[in-house]
Design a protein that fits this description.
- This protein has 340 residues and is mainly β.
- The chain has 3 domains: 163 residues, Porin; 36 residues, no CATH class; 102 residues, no CATH class.
- It is 4% helix and 62% strand.
- It contains 2 helices and 22 strands.
- The strands form 5 sheets. The protein has a 14-stranded antiparallel β-sheet. A two-stranded antiparallel sheet has the order 2-3.
- It is globular, with a radius of gyration of 26 Å.
Length: 340
């Protein structure tokens, strides 16, 4: 919407409904005897049964739930001069179960000597509490928190871009400030005589780093992209690599396309919640895709993942997988796609 030659205003409304189904307790307890006689005895042949009863009243881990979400946003892009532009915007989301949240964003772009652009960007985002965090029944040592708030993050970026017919290069410094991070706190006053872990908005952390990216255009058919990121200050208690690197080459000719990409992650060292030291080895992951548009509406593709058959693991927060979750070996995938 153009209200003024130098202003471009955009706005919108978003409405959706989120829901989940019944998630019952499961155990090898004879549910019928427990419901009728309050007897806690094993089921026949230790068969897994659903539901749990206390005093004849059924309890489930998570009952069917739904919530309505309404969001509105407004943004103005202002062309101050031919070399300078600014963007400012805001969004408000209203959840009928935990309340509302306002997110702001803004940026300034300055073009210098046609080939250089300097950018300052600021943005806010949030993660709404999940059904399990706010409505789950007490089980396995955990209990929900109906008063949980959304996790927040505020991001600031400074970026320099250089453009040339054969090269595009950028360098970015970023800083993330996280607040109201959900942490699991031991509580004993929710259910008398029972100690459980409850999600609470207790955490606050920050991270910062630098990212470099380059795009090379050798010809109309060949191009290459490379990027690298270094974390100057990683998140605490999160096993993330300080350095990562990605490379990709793409060749396009007529209806044929070939792509070769690689991703590198350095070794990660971290400690478990019990203080035990673990490490995940560094690795290179190489993938390749060949596709052919043999008609205007049909395309066939062949993808090969983990070409080097690298044995590597990724971190998982699940208990018992502290040493990493093994990834797949070399695999292939063939697809046939029709567009309409």
């Amino acid at each position: 919407m153009n209200l003024h030659p130098q202003h471009q205003v955009s706005w919108g409304v978003v409405a959706r409904q989120e829901s989940n189904g019944l998630n019952p307790f499961q155990s090898n307890v004879n549910v019928e005897r427990l419901q009728n006689n309050n007897e806690l005895i094993p089921s026949d042949n230790n068969q897994l049964e659903q539901g749990f009863y206390i005093g004849g009243v059924r309890f489930d881990l998570l009952e069917p739930e739904e919530r309505d979400v309404l969001g509105v946003y407004l943004q103005d892009h202002w062309l101050v001069t031919e070399a300078l532009s600014a963007t400012i915007g805001a969004r408000y989301d209203e959840y009928d179960d935990f309340g509302g949240n306002t997110s702001l964003r803004g940026g300034v772009v300055y073009r210098f000597a046609d080939q250089h652009r300097f950018k300052f960007m600021y943005g806010e985002a949030f993660r709404a509490p999940s059904f399990s965090e706010t409505r789950q029944g007490i089980a396995s040592g955990g209990i929900a928190n109906p008063d949980l708030k959304a996790e927040q993050v505020k991001t600031t970026e400074f970026k320099w871009e250089f453009s040339h017919p054969k090269l595009m290069f950028s360098s970015t410094l970023f800083h993330n400030d996280y607040s109201d991070i959900v942490e699991f706190i031991s509580v004993s006053d929710v259910v008398p005589g029972f100690t459980a872990l409850q999600p609470q908005n207790k955490g606050r952390q920050q991270s910062k780093g630098v990212e470099l990216e380059a795009n090379l255009y050798f010809s109309q058919s060949w191009n290459m992209r490379a990027s690298a990121m270094h974390l100057l200050e990683p998140l605490k208690d999160q096993p993330l690599a300080d350095d990562t690197l990605s490379l990709s080459m793409n060749w396009q000719h007529s209806s044929m396309n070939f792509n070769l990409s690689g991703f590198y992650r350095e070794q990660i060292r971290f400690e478990s919640t019990g203080g035990e030291a673990f490490s995940l080895s560094d690795y290179w992951l190489i993938n390749s895709t060949v596709s052919w548009h043999f008609s205007e509406s049909w395309r066939v593709s062949m993808m090969a993942e983990n070409l080097l058959n690298e044995a590597y693991s990724t971190w998982s927060p699940q208990a018992g997988l502290e040493t990493g979750l093994p990834a797949r070996e070399r695999s292939y995938r063939l697809s046939l796609v029709k567009t309409f």
